[in-house]
Design brief:
The protein has 136 residues and is an alpha+beta fold. It is 25% helix and 45% strand. It folds into 2 domains: 82 residues, F0F1 ATP synthase delta/epsilon subunit, N-terminal (ATP Synthase, domain 1, Sandwich), CATH 2.60.15; 42 residues, ATP synthase delta/epsilon subunit, C-terminal domain (Single alpha-helices involved in coiled-coils or other helix-helix interfaces, Up-down Bundle), CATH 1.20.5. This is ATP synthase epsilon chain.
């Protein structure tokens, strides 16, 4: 059995999560990374994607993460992100509107569109909808 470790997830507006966990799976630039107790120390950028947390009771919970960075030390794993949301916190209609708006921007012939910003917003909206279980 791997054991438990301390996980903190913080955003500019709140402490999103602070507790003991068995495992966390988070999206980094190279793909998904799993963290267990006694993981090698690491600092890594975090990509837009889900955060899957295996609680000490062995059950997984999932949240949407808007990107940021992560540090893993002997004492704890800390994820700092612009935004993190549980599925029940997500405004589905707002996420659908953002998805449609950014798809339209990317499909337009307007050369003034900030493509990087539109793609990032599109990815955030898609991630938020996936967390709620909505097919996109």
């Amino acid at each position: 059995m791997a054991g438990n470790f301390k996980l903190k997830i913080v955003t500019p507006s709140r402490s999103f999560f602070d507790g003991d966990v068995e495992m966390v799976i988070i999206r980094v630039s190279e793909g998904d990374m799993g963290i267990l107790k006694d993981h090698e120390p690491v600092v890594s950028p975090v990509a837009i994607g889900p955060i899957r947390i295996k609680n000490v009771d062995g059950k997984f919970v999932e949240a949407a993460c808007a990107g940021g960075f992560m540090t893993v030390t002997d004492e704890q794993t800390t994820i700092v992100t612009d935004a993190a949301e549980w599925a029940h916190e997500i405004d589905v209609e707002r996420a659908k509107e953002a998805l449609d708006r950014n798809r339209n921007r990317l499909d337009s012939d307007d050369h003034e569109v900030d493509v990087v910003r539109a793609r990032t917003s599109l990815n955030r909206a898609m991630n938020r909808l996936r967390i709620t279980g909505i097919d996109i």
